[in-house]
Each structure stands twice: as structure tokens, then as C-alpha cells.
Amino acid sequence: MNVGKSLASKVLAVVAVMQSQGLDICCLQEIDVNEPSWPRVVASFRAQGFDIFAGVADANSMRRCAIVSKLPGKLLQLEGVEEAARAVAMVFEVQRNGSYRKVIVGCTYGHASCLEAASRHSGQVIDALCRRRVDWMLLGDYNVALDEAPAAWELAARADVRSLDEAFLEYGPLPATSPSRLRRIDFGLASRQLSAEALHTFETIADHRGTAYDMRFAGPRGFSGPPRASLTAADVSPSCWEEVWRTRAASFQAALTTDVEEAWTILSSAAEQAMAGPAQRFNGCARHSTWRPHRERDVHKAAAGAESLLLTRMRRLQRRLAHLRRVQHDAQLRRNIVADLGLLGHTFPELLEFRHGGELGAVRLVDSLVAALEKESLESAVAAWRQGIDFNYKAQCAWVKRRSGLEKELENAGEVDPLLSRVAIHPTRVIAEAEEQWLPRWSRRQGRCHAAVATALSSLPELPRANLELSFTGAELFAIGKTMCGKAGGPDGWTADLWCHLPLDFWNCLASLWQAVVRLKKLPHIWRHSRVALIPKGNGDCRPLSLLCIAYRIGARAVLSQVSSWAEAWLGHQTSGGVPRRSLKDVVSQVLVSSMDGGVTVAEDLSKFFDGIDHQDLDMAMERLGAPRQFRDLVSLFYDEHYKLFSAGGLLGGCWHRTARGLCQGCPLSPLLASTVMLAWALRLEQLPGVRAASFVDDRYMLLKPQADAGMACRSSRDFDSALGFSCDSAKCKVAAPSSCAWAAGVVRAFGYESTSVLKVLGLMLDFNAGGRALLAGFSVQKARQRLRLASVVAKTVACRRRLFRSLAVPLWTWAGAFGGLAAAEANELRADILCRVGSTSVRDKARPLALEIIGYDCDPVFSRRWAALREVTRVATSTAAWQETAPLDVALRAWPLYLHFAMDILTELGWQVEENGRVISRVDAQGRIRRFRCGQDRLEVLREWVMDWHRREALVQCQRVHRDYHRTEPALARGGWLPPIANGTLCTFRGHCKHFAVCGAFGRQLCLGHGCSGWDKAKRNGLEAIPQCRCGLAEPSRPHLLWRCPEFTTLSAACGPPTTRLAERLLAVAVPEIPPAPPVLDPGEVLEDIAADIRLRWPPDGVLLLGTDGSAFDLVAAAAAFCELVCRGVIAIDCKAAIDAWNGCGCLSFYVTLLRSLRAQLRSLGLEVDAVWVPSHGKPTPPGWRGSAFFSLQRLRAINERADGAAGPLARRRATGSLRQRCLRAREEAARWEMRVLALAERVAEEWDACET
CA 314, CA 958: separation in Å to the nearest integer? Predict the structure, then answer.
């Protein structure tokens, strides 16, 4: 509570407020009591029954803040706080069940005139409190709001701090407390273990509102997990691992034959020891073992906080020795001390010498040991805090998402009286409600009819059992583990981030363990446990996400990749979502084609689909589909005995619960398993005439033609749901059709669902009246702006903002690619927001082309919406999706320009065309040449460069300062020269600006963005009322004048001469040419025929060739070469991994996959067998698991590949020499060098101008 100065005269008023609000502790700010008056203030409060604690006085002998308390406490010294007068802390004890718990209450008073200083001060106070390793609260007038940049920077990465306000936002915006009632600057922070039950806002004796929290320290505390040994996030060398593993290797190998539990215990313990380091003395719960949740242990009275048991015991001995000095004849006390000395003597043998009559002689030694342990504990606490507080990308993302969610709650809440008390829901209550909701759903289904289930699943094909043996390798598991870095750990406390520091030998052992699991049909017990995180949904419900042990998740991901071949045998166009080679866009494609053909779509949403799947039904479905025996056994092994533990708000439920139904949301295998059941539904419906079915996880779609019997389809679907215990959420189910569709009314009557012409399909809104045109369903410009604002708040630098924009904002409008996106007007609105986040907040100060280049076009909504659509188009145009292989031909072969309307709109905006049914994108370049991009053949970077150049030109066209004059005519003004405007179509890449921006200072960054170094800028920066004169005597100096024409500042003009273009004068840039087409290859068909004829001559009927091929590129001009030797086997040595993948029928080069597949078939028809072998280029080492040729050594393969490489390189250089592309690159490089040189000199001029006296 801010008292508005002169506390000495307001003691009774403060006491009256505390009594009316029922406050036990009140933190006061801006008390401004001088040293002579302080004793009178203390006496006045004590006369009213209160204690008051204040910090030290400032340089003016004034005390700035204090804590008034009814509860007995002790003043606490805060270390490391620069302005100690602005903070004070007290510690008090609460008693619970006969034990004590220490709590610190802190008070802070931030700087009112400087947000950065206020945030820095509160950060220092928080640091001091966190070092105490005890529960704490910090209340006060922070003078900075939580969502303002400085505070967000300090708090975003802190996992150890909780805002006490967060629990109350569901009631609406929290009241502003500042004198202007515009900002909330009076609030409370606390350690993660504390949460408030109620929030009160009240009027005070000053101009601030007061904020109070109800804290029930003896209330429900919930449960927590076991203490774990702290591990270092540093790489473990192979030699270090070998040293740890040497004594365990034999036991591990023996355990693999009979006991996977013991094998897991050995492996996990070795990993813990290797990562704990030699100085680790803490023995917590081992990560391999199962555990029970426990209530937080109360702190012993001898402890100063949450410290180690050893230090607590040493403090007890210290206290007993001090007492012995006063009562040296207390026999019981001496016996206790002797027992303590004996117990602690195992750790400190020096103490054993004082057990026989010389107990008091141990006082000095015990004091020194306590001091040493305190220092060690403090250093450990600081290290743990530093590890959590250091700025990192994950913490920034988490803060933005969390803050975004809180602000969404504010938007959804109605108007609330700001002074109305608010009550929070304690996490223990959330857990209890979740257990009540979900545990009955996860119990065995009552009334299950085996015959009805068999009938429902009879539509599944009866396939022979797949003959598949699961196998695991350390390299494969390590690669999977790297993709899981950043994911939360499971019940065992292991994370992929930790394991990725271990050497490959550990992963090989993990692979051996998984092999034993499959062979012995046993799982380590902890792998059967999962922690359930309750993820809030938009409708107020929660989604139970199961966090499984990382060892199981990694192995399950490996299993999923191996059973994909079995899944491909029965997966078709009907099921998508979490299954191999199928995504939500496959379902959208089928719905779009159906809408084009005038069909009706019935959309159904299954309620709690994953959680309603019965394990017996699942096993029956897998049996019909011929699931591999080992896979079925593993699934049964995992679900037959599975335990779940709920968690919310950092607390855990009280016990583990065994489940008998449902799939774990979070298990890599769950989507594939669920699709086996959903496929039965789809195949059942497709047996009916005129009905097609598709699904994405729990979203089902029936695509009906006019001849379909809607009533029969409805009955068949509902019979299936009844047999398997599923139910649809009728409020979310729709019948979608064009308004002109006459027969849609019959479908609506049959199903009883609401009719609509605009259907939400997996995040897209499809307008059936417009032929299926799609818009983003959940997109909101306001939400995107919110993400941009919050990312800018938490990220200090442009580089950090760029990364956050790309990951948190751009996907909001680009995820749908060619299927749907932003409207052009919305994209331009968001572009203005992006530009505000680069440099100064004013968009007018900056040159748009420069700001877009520096922040990156990937962050530009205008560019990214177009690029996402075109990138998606290249995928659709060149690859045959898995769903197309089983879909009807009239659906599967539909060309994308006919149904991807958004992509066609993008091409229209660019003025480009499509050819060959969308396989070619063509345009006319600046020289009037027709340029064609062949999807699947040309590099995607070529198309990206085209799109970027289009936007660069557009940005320059819209940049008025290089087109309009803006030239002042008054001779007394310090102005630049007159230069002609640039021509439309001018292209600039601003490479020099981007490079200089990354290394320059503040003035350089301004110049890179096209502003600064002017009289107006200097006046604004220094708060001057008048614009200063130039040193040459002219008034209102402009940037062109200072940089190029002023005789007093000649650093730039003397070195580079006067500018010749308006682009150089005002943007310090140079125009560059467009990248021209590649040099033509004369008659490539004849060249290929000559090569083929030459190879045929060298390849006799009874011999085989060793062929080495390689390509090379120089200055964007490529060439290829081939060398061959007559040997005993046909092998092609290639150093391009993508080419090898294409040869093997996989990879991203879909066009060449098809081409090479056809080529291999033709070779086989001629009786020619050719093998392709990947050879690491330029002598690089072969990776683990590399397989060469059985007929040739690695040296032989490298030799033939190097001969081809040696021929391709000079050929590429010869083709590039003198080409248009080479000249273009040299021009661009020269432009970048000129820009960097000019910017560096201009920065010196700006510094000189800033140093001039005004």
C-alpha cells in the first residue's frame, strides 16, 4: 500500500485501513520517514498492537518502505540489492501439525520515473529472496506492470516465480492501481509453492489503490514428487561413461536375459552417476524407481529454510553446544550431543575426537563447518537459480503463450466491479474434480457385448499376420531423442535434453534394453506410469495429456517407424492424423473436392474418443488387420497395467490410479492404434452406395452424393458407436451443403444435426456457397497482434524477436499453406505491427524496405502468406499423397488449381500463371523473359527468391522517400541535394544493411533502418524544445545534409564522394540486378544420348560398370560429371544423400523418385541391375551404421567419386565464367560492400553529430 509520504502523521490511518480490511501484514511504500522520527513511528504502531520493520535509510536519511505486522517476525537482511532503502523483508513462522514452516514477506518500492530501474530493482530483490530457498512473497508498488517490457524480460524465464494475480484473471481484467487508474503497478509475486485464495482491492489513504491477498498457509498444500539428484547439463565423454559403466556392464548383460527391471535400474543409475559429477552428495529418489506422491515436508525449527538434512543436523548440534555452555551439568543434553557427534562423525571424522568429555571443544569446529555448509548451500541455490533464470528461447515462448492465455481469459470475462473480492480455485480442487471426471471414464466399460463389437469391426479386412521383428539401434534412438529435446519429462524425471548429453554407448545399451523388452514381454515398472497434465480447452474443459517416461516414448517412436510398413497395408484415404504419410490437409482436400462436385458433408465430433477406446476392442481390431505379434504384445503389456497421476498448478494428486480403458494422449502409438478402430467405421459406411468417409483423429466426415441413403448411413454410424461405446457431441455436429442443394434437407432430417453452408473443417472455414473457398477458422488479427506485442515485450533484441515471431506468430496465418490464409487487408494491417517492433516504435521513422529486410521477410505477413501457399503448391503438384492411392480416381487426380482457390488468388496477386495442370509456375521477369519454375525439378530456393524479389520491388514502390521530392527550398535550411527519383521495378537486397545491423551500435542501427542522424532525431532524443542548428550554421539539419553535404562532417563524403542516386542518398543503398536464367545447355537430349551410347560401349554384355557421378555449382551455375570403370559389378557411387533417397524411392525429391523408379524398372526389363551407394564427400568420415558396397572397398568408391568431383568442379567454373549469373553475383557483392562501408562511415558521422553541443 502506497501511503503517499509522511507516514509519521498517518499511523492511525494505516491501522484503520488494516483493521477494516482484516490485514495481518501490510507492506507500505513511499513512507518517507527521517531518522529522528523513526522511533516515534515504531512506538505508535506498537501502541496499536503492531510491529513495524523497515529497511536501511537512503542517502538522505529517509526510510522509503516498511512492513507492518500483527505476527511476530524477524527483520531479514537482503543481500545483493543495490538500493537497499527501497526494499525490506521479514521472516515469520507458521505452525502446522506441531511443526514449523518459515515464510518470508518482502516489500519493494520501484522507481517511478524509470521502468528499467524499477524492473532491475525488483529483479535484485527476487534474486535475494530466491537464494534463501524458502517460501516467500514480495508485495509492493513496483511502478512497472507485469506486461511491460522490463518486467517481462526479468520474469519470463523464471520458473521459480509466480504472479499472485494469475489465479484471478478469469473474473475479468484486474483493477488498475496507479494514480491515473491506467496501470496495475501494485501487486504481489511469490515462490512457486505459494498461491493466493482470494484477492481484494481497496481504496487507501493515498492516490494508489491497495491490493491484498488471502494466504492460507495451513490450507491444502497438495502433493509433490520425490527429490531427485541434481544433474549437470554437460556432455559426458565416452571415457567418462566407460569409467562409470565398466563395473556394471556384466551385470547389465546378465539382466538382459531375464530381468528388464534390473537392467533398467543399472542403466538409469549409471546415467545418473555419469551426469551427477564426482562432487554430488545428495541421494534422492533414484530415477529408475517407482514412487508415491508425498506432502511437502515441514521445515525443522533448526533449519533456516529448505536446506539439506546434513546442514539441519549441524545446526541442531550447534544450538545444543551453545546451550551446553550455559547448563554444563545437563546429562541428557550431553548424551544427545555425543549421539550427534557420532552420527555426524561419519561425514566429518574430526568430530569423533570430542565424544569423550570434550564436547565443548567442538564449538569452533562446528561453527566453521556450519559456515562452510551454508556457503555451499548458497552457491548451489544460486547455480540452480541461474540455470532457471538465464534467458532462453523456451522460457520466452512459454511466457508469451501463458500471458496470451491469460489475456484471452480477460477478453472472455465480463465487466466486474474492480473493488470486488475475487476467489481462486486451488490446484488441489482442480485435481480432485479431474479425478472425479476422468477416472470413471478410464474404468472398464460396463455392458460390453463381444458379438456387437465383432459385428462393428467386421468391415475391417482380415489380413494375414505381418511377419515383422522389432529391432532397435542406438543411433536410431539417439536421433529420435534429439527430436524430443524441449519436451517435458515423465514420472521418472528423465528428459531427452539430459540424455542427449550421454555418448552413443548409452544409447546402444538402451537399444539392447528395448530388445530385451520385446523378447521377454516385460516392461520396467516405471514405464507403465504417466503423469496427467490437464491442458485447458477453449470450451472450459481440459484435455488430459499423459506425460510418459522418455525411455518409453523414444522406444515407442522407433516401434512406430517400424510398424509403418504394416500400417501402409491397410491405411487408405479414410484415416488421417498421427498416422504415417497422412495429415489433416488430406481430409480437407477430399471435402473440397466433394463440395466442388455438389456433395453434402456430414461432420461429426466424437466425445472423448481416445479415452473411450476399450483395450479389448482395440486388440480385436489389430488382430483382424494382422498386426505383428510383437507389436500387439507390446501394446497389451503397456495398457494391461497402467497407472496415472493427475497434476495441476505444480501440484500432484495424492495417489496413482490404475486404468483399464482409453489410450494415452501423448503416447506416440496412440494415433495409429485409434485409427484401427476409426477405419472400421469408415469402411462400414463406404459399403453403402454414394457414401465416402474420412476422419482426422476424432473428427469424422461423411461425404454423401445425391444417390446416398442418408437414413441408412445415419443408422449404420450410430450402430457402430453404440457397439464400441462412443458418442457424438451433437452440438458440434453439422450438415454442410450449398444453400442451393435441394436434397440436403433430407440429410438434415435423417441425422438431426444443424444445417450450414459454412463448415469448420480442422481449423478452416469452408464456404460451400463459394465452391469451397477456405478461410482460417480460429484466426484473429487481435490475437496475432497480441503475440507480436508480447514477443516484443519479452525479447530484447531484433534477433530474438525475429525468432519468436517465426515460431509464435507467423504459424497463426501460414499453417494452412495453399488451403487458406489471411486476407490481403489483414496481412497489411499486421505488417504495420511487425514494422513497429523493429527499432523505434514509430513506423514513419523507418524505411519500410529496410525494416522488412532486417526483420526478415519470413516475419512479414504479406510475404509469408504468399510464400506458404506457393510452397504448399509445389508439394501438392509433385507428390502423390498416400490418400490418393486408394481414393476414387475422379477425386485423387483432381488438379490443384481447380480446388485450391486461395493459392490461385495468390498467383493472381503476383501476376503469375500456372501451366501443365499446375506443375509449372510461370512469370515474366524484369527483362521481359518468360521464366518457368517446374515443381519438383527446380530448387525451391529459386521460387522463394522470385517471391522475395517481387516483395522487395513492391516495398520500394511504396517507399515515398525515394519517389517523392521532400526537398526543402529555403536556402537557410541544412538540406541535401536534389537527385532524381528511382524507377519503378528497381531491386535492392540491402545485404550490407543486414550485415551491419548485426554488429553496429545504436546510431548504426538507426541508419540501417533509414532514420536517425538529423536535427529532429537529436531534439527528440535529448528532449529539446527547438531543433538544434548544424555545426555549419544552417538550421534544421537533415540526414542527407549531415552525411553528404555538410562541410563540417566530411567523413563519409570525402571517402565515397557525393551520391548519384536518391536511393544512395536517402537509404544508403545500391540497386542490384535480378538473378538471370541459368546458362542454356545446347541440345541436352543429344548430350544424354551421347553419354548413354558411351556407357553402352564400355558395358559389354557379360561385364558390369563401376560408375561415379558428381555435381558441382559455382556462382549459381551447376555442372555434372560421370566416370566409369569396367568391373565385376554394377555400382554407382554418389555423394548426394538426397539422390540416394530418390534412387531408393523415398526422400523429398518426389519428381526424381518417380523418374528413377521408372528408370530402374526399364533397366530391369533389359536385364540390367544397378546399385547406388552413398559415399561421404571430400574424405568425410562415415557415420555410424553406414553401409557401403559388398563388392568394393570404401577407398575404391571414394576414388571413383573424387574423379567425378574433380571433373565436375572445373566444368561448373568454366560454364559460370562470364555468364550473366556470375556478373549478377559480382554486382550484388559489390553493392553489399559499398553499403557496409557507407554505413560504417555514416555511423561515425552520427556519433560526431550527437557529441556536438546544442
Answer: 74
Phi, psi of 847, deg, nearest 5? -85, 125
Which range, 267-271, 574-578, 1025-1029, 1135-1139, has the best average confidence (pLDDT)?
267-271
pTM: 0.79
pLDDT one-digit tens code per residue, 386-413: 444 345 677 778 778 877 776 665 565 4
Between CA 136 and CA 143 the distance in angstroms is 20
d(CA 716, CA 694): 15
Domain boundary among 958, 989, 1021: 958
Predicted pLDDT at 385: 45
Query: Which of 168, 110, 299, 296 has its CA nearest to residue 221?
Result: 296
The answer to whether residue 1184 is domain-embedded is yes
Q: Is residue 201 classed as helix, strand or coil in its secondary structure?
A: strand
- Whole-angstrom CA distances from 314 to 374, 444, 504, 943, 1145 are 10, 53, 43, 70, 69
Instruction: Map grid coordinates 518457368 to a residue.
Output: 932
C-alpha cell at 840: 523505434
Predicted pLDDT at 1036: 93
Indicate the pLDDT class of residue 147, thresholds 50, 70 and 90: confident
Pair (545, 637) in one structural domain? yes
pLDDT reported for residue 862: 97
Would 403 be classed as within a structural domain? no
55 and 132 inside one domain: yes
Comparing 1192 with 891, the larger pLDDT belongs to 891
Q: Return the bridge partners of 105, or none.
A: 90, 137
The pLDDT, as a whole number, for residue 1126 is 56
Query: Which segments of 537-678 are extended strands (E)?
Result: 542-548, 575-576, 600-605, 642-648, 651-652, 657-659
Mean pLDDT, rounded, of the chain: 87
Long-range contacts at 1022-1028 (CB < 8 A, ≥ 24 apart): 1022/1254, 1024/1254, 1028/1252, 1028/1254
1070 and 1106 fall within a common domain: no
Percent of all residues in the chain with a pLDDT value above 70, rounded to a whole number: 91
**Please, what is the end-to-end C-alpha distance for the chain in angstroms?**
43
Q: Which three cell numbers stand for residue 661?
A: 480403458
DSSP per-residue string spanning 204-228: -SSSSEEEEEE--TTS---EE----
| DSSP string for 1151-1172 | HHHHHHHHHHHHHHHTT---EE
Q: Which of 460, 149, 130 lies closest to 305, judged by CA?
A: 130
DSSP 582: -
- Which cell numbers hold the place of 538? 477453449
Residue 1055 backbone class (left: φ over 0; alpha: ψ -120 to 50; beta: rest): alpha
pLDDT for residue 1241 is more than 60: yes
Q: Based on the domain organization, do 116 and 245 belong to the same domain?
A: no
**What 3-state DSSP class applies to 545?**
strand
Length of the chain: 1254
Upper half-sphere CA count for residue 644 (Cβ side, 13 Å)? 30
Element (H, E) at 956: helix 940-957
d(CA 13, CA 203): 12
Q: Do 877 and 1026 fall into the same domain?
A: no
Q: Where are the alpha helices (DSSP H) in 698-842?
A: 710-724, 744-751, 781-794, 798-804, 811-814, 824-836
**Cβ partners under 8 Å of residue 774, min gap 6:** 588, 592, 764, 765, 766, 767, 816, 819, 820, 901, 902
3-state secondary structure of 1047: coil
Domain that holds residue 330: 309-382
Query: Residue 261: is it exposed, middle or buried by C-beta count within 10 angstroms (0-12/13-18/19+)?
Result: middle
Q: Are strands 575-576 and 600-605 parallel, antiparallel or unpaired?
A: unpaired
Interval 1007-1031: pLDDT, tens: 999 999 999 999 988 888 899 999 9
